[in-house]
Specification:
Layout: H1 10-21, H2 25-39, H3 45-50, H4 54-67, H5 72-94, H6 107-118, H7 120-125, H8 136-141, H9 148-163, E1 174-178, H10 184-193, E2 199-204, H11 207-219, E3 226-230, E4 243-249, H12 258-268, E5 269-282, H13 286-292, H14 311-323, H15 332-342, E6 345-352, H16 354-357, H17 359-370, H18 373-376, H19 380-401, E7 405-414
Parallel strand pairs: 1-2, 1-4, 2-3, 4-5
Antiparallel strand pairs: 5-7, 6-7
Helix pairs in contact: 1-2, 1-5, 2-19, 6-11, 9-10, 12-15, 17-19
Length: 415
């Protein structure tokens, strides 16, 4: 699906930035090179033609100065103009999504492979690639006082408690973790939360994540109770009615078909089993959709479900979709409606945990400020990507804060 609000390709942004740098290309070129390395683009010949080396700039300035001295005021004005040009070009690059979801290109798997190999995400976020949980008391005391990684374990505890209220969790034997990341939740469920007789099967699109998750399971002594596989959540190999509990934490964001995502998880769930979903969502707009006369069926479809959102909100959503390989979001209310429409579930429950999770976004930035060295030693490509991550983390915080995005919790039992 393609958005009508696209800003333009990253390659075009990079090229325009390089051209705009003009005589000051020595400074701008470093940023452009990092941008091109990070997103895999190549600089056009035309852009190279317009670039001038720093040696040429120095030679030109020296010759000009010898011929006619330039006043400090003129030099300062020129430097200010150059810095403004660089700043505007940098802003354009950072405002242009660089990691767009592309159907059929394994975008999600490739991105998570890259993050796994870099090691930066695991270093800061630990074994759990999802948001943390902060109580009212912890938020009042200041989120930065809480251990960032512990917040993620707390989230798993709270999600398990919330999601299994409607069933007897002591009878759970087989669990499926859909979108398992490094397998942190799978291992934690196997070690602490599940009954001793239970085991966890976990799937992801990333071979590197499977490799890392399996390695950590062996190190932690839970490899016999966990099994990690590369598998598409929209086309799972498991037979119908295979699992007592299906767990999906922050994987729905990456699914190009939300209805199929939910229905496939319900398919592999045993009768009496529980489905628990946690996912980033956008504001529900069903009433605006109804008022416009648009069919309610489009609520689960990419870019067709934005009736009632302002142009500015659509632009913000478009960036948040496309920067981290998300096809699109839907509301948590719509996830609940998809469950209901399946016709085979009961006890559908939903909640918004935006308040409990919002501090994760800025906390993630702060842990990097306090301990920047892994990024420092990785070099310009990772520096550039880290700057992009900081920008996106702050955008996510603001979207949670003003209600454009929510944190959806959805659970139901198969009849």
């Amino acid at each position: 699906h393609h958005s009508p609000h696209r800003i333009g390709s990253s390659a075009r942004a990079a090229s325009s930035f390089e051209t705009a740098g003009g005589g000051y290309s020595a400074a701008s070129q470093q940023i452009v090179d990092a941008h091109q390395q990070a997103v895999g683009t190549t600089t056009t010949t035309a852009a190279h033609t317009t670039s001038v080396s720093s040696h040429q700039v120095i030679a030109t300035l020296s010759a000009s100065t010898a011929a006619a001295p330039v006043s400090p005021l003129v030099m300062a004005a020129g430097a200010t103009a150059a810095l403004a040009t660089i700043a505007l070009a940098a802003k354009k690059i950072l405002d242009t999504p660089s990691r767009e979801y592309v159907a059929g290109a394994d975008t999600v798997g490739n991105e998570y492979d890259a993050w796994t190999e870099e090691g930066v995400l695991e270093y800061y976020w630990g074994e759990h690639i999802h948001l943390g949980y902060y109580t009212d008391e912890e938020r009042a005391a200041g989120y930065k006082k809480k251990d960032f990684k512990k917040a993620k374990f707390d989230f798993v505890d709270e999600m398990y408690k919330w999601g299994t209220q409607a069933i007897d969790s002591s009878k759970v034997k087989k669990v499926l973790d859909v979108g398992c990341g490094f397998g942190g939740t799978s291992r934690y469920l196997a070690k602490k939360l599940l009954p001793e007789h239970a085991d966890v099967t976990a799937i992801t699109l990333s071979p590197k994540q499977v490799e890392r998750a399996t390695q950590l399971a062996k190190e932690q002594g839970v490899h016999e109770k966990t099994n990690f596989q590369v598998m598409d959540a929209l086309n799972m190999d498991f037979p119908d009615n295979s699992f007592d509990l299906v767990w999906a934490c922050e994987s729905g964001e990456h699914m190009p078909d939300k209805t199929k995502y939910v229905n496939e998880m319900i398919r592999v769930l045993k009768p009496g089993g529980r489905l628990i979903i946690a996912t980033w969502c956008q504001r529900d707009n069903l009433e605006e959709l109804k008022a416009s006369g648009t069919s309610e069926e489009v609520m689960a479809n990419a870019y067709e479900n934005l009736v009632g959102f302002t142009d500015e909100e659509k632009e913000r959503l478009d960036f948040l979709y496309r920067e981290w390989a998300h096809p699109y979001f839907i509301s948590y209310e719509e996830y609940a409606r998809i469950c209901e429409r399946s016709g085979v579930v009961k006890d559908v429950t939903m909640a918004d945990w935006a308040k409990e999770t919002i501090d994760s976004w800025r906390h993630s930035i702060w842990v990097g400020v306090w301990d920047p060295w892994i990024v420092v030693f990785k070099g310009p490509k990772v520096w550039y990507k880290t700057i992009r991550e900081i920008v996106t983390l702050e955008r996510m915080h603001r979207a949670f804060d003003d209600g454009l995005l929510t944190y959806g919790m959805i659970s139901c039992t198969k009849k």
